């Protein structure tokens, strides 16, 4: 999208997502623990930072929406208007469902999504929704809250993802069966129902060869199958669940632990981005290794809903 970012004094509006970020990503100069980060956001709201009282710590999908896999240091679109971006980890408000004493953070140097102990210290970047339009980023799925030690607590006033549940609500039902495929009515993507249709892992180049053969064979009557981009894979994650981190009652079968994406790492082009489904980390895999699985997909996806794209 051209002119995605719009400056407005000390903030930047992302017109792609409907989110407002502080222009200075280093406004909080020092790393904080997760609970300190949430407390710092409360202070911003009490003092009315830049005239607003509804700042929050971004959830995992909101911070991921800023990531570009085409650039590094920082891993934000080249046309961004931000200052003070630290090329390291930033907290999100989203807890790891399997290990609730850990929370998700994202590396702003390279876009890696991982989880870490809440007592460790990382950077903080406030965000807020633009009213009345709200956010065009999908919800993470998280509905519960935990303290720094991983004990469940009342979400009220916590400022966590489980309390705010910011973002677009997924359609219900989300998944619609179509023969041996599953249509995600939120993203518009169509996935194979069988998530291990090739019966084992493969190297990265073989994944593309397998998809090319699918298209020659017109599997299920189509010739536009592809290796998913990393955003396609990440869109399947649900942060209220683990093992796998997919929505409750999802219709897929034979879900494996990790999947290749078609997205090459810009840190080292010998690696490609991968999704680990147990908890939902986004990391990288070495392309020549026969270690990751293929989950073919059809259809375009940009990080927004299918209906949003139709409106453009």
In short:
This protein has six helices and 16 strands. It is α+β, with helices and mostly antiparallel strands and 312 residues long.
N-to-C CA distance: 11 Å
Low-confidence region ranges: 306-312
Strand share of the residues? Answer: 15-25%
- Order of strands across the biggest sheet? 1-2-3-7
Radius of gyration, in angstroms, nearest whole number: 19 Å
Number of DSSP E strands? 16
Mean pLDDT: 94
Q: Choose one word for the global shape.
A: globular
Q: Mind summarizing the main beta sheet?
A: 4 strands, antiparallel
Sheet/helix structural class: alpha+beta
| DSSP helical segment count | 6
Describe the structure.
With 312 residues, the chain is of the alpha+beta class. It has a 4-stranded antiparallel β-sheet, with no helix packed on it. The chain has 6 helices and 16 strands. The chain folds into 2 domains: 5-164; 175-310, Mannose-Binding Protein A, Chain A, CATH 3.10.100. Residues 306-312 have low confidence and may be disordered.
Index terms:
disordered C terminus; Mannose-Binding Protein A, Chain A; four-stranded antiparallel beta sheet; alpha+beta; Lcl C-terminal domain-containing protein; Lcl_C; 16 strands; 312 residues; 2 domains
């Amino acid at each position: 999208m051209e002119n995605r970012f719009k400056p407005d004094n000390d903030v930047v509006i992302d017109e792609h997502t409907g989110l407002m970020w502080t222009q200075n990503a280093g406004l909080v100069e020092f790393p904080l623990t997760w609970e300190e980060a949430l407390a710092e956001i409360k202070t911003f709201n009490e003092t009315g930072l830049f005239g607003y009282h509804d700042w929050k710590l971004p959830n995992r999908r909101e911070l991921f929406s800023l990531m570009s896999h085409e650039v590094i240091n920082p891993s934000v679109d080249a046309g961004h208007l931000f200052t003070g971006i630290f090329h390291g980890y930033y907290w999100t408000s989203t807890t790891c469902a399997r290990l609730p004493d850990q929370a998700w953070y994202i590396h702003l140097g390279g876009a890696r999504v991982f989880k870490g102990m809440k007592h460790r210290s990382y950077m903080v970047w406030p965000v807020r929704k633009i009213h009345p339009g709200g956010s065009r980023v999908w919800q993470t799925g998280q509905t519960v809250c935990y303290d720094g030690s991983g004990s469940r607590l009342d979400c009220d006033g916590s400022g966590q993802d489980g309390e705010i549940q910011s973002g677009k609500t997924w359609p219900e039902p989300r998944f619609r069966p179509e023969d041996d495929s599953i249509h995600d009515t939120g993203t518009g993507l169509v996935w194979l129902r069988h998530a291990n249709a090739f019966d084992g892992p493969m190297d990265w180049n073989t994944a593309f060869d397998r998809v090319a053969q699918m298209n020659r064979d017109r599997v299920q009557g189509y010739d536009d199958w592809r290796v998913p981009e990393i955003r396609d894979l990440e869109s399947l994650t649900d942060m209220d669940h683990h093992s796998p981190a997919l929505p409750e009652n999802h219709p897929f079968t034979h879900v494996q632990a990790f999947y290749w994406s078609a997205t090459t790492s810009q840190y080292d082009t010998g690696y490609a981005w991968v999704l680990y489904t147990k908890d939902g980390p986004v990391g990288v895999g070495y392309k020549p290794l026969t270690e990751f699985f293929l989950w073919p997909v059809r259809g375009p996806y940009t990080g927004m809903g299918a209906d949003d794209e139709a409106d453009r």
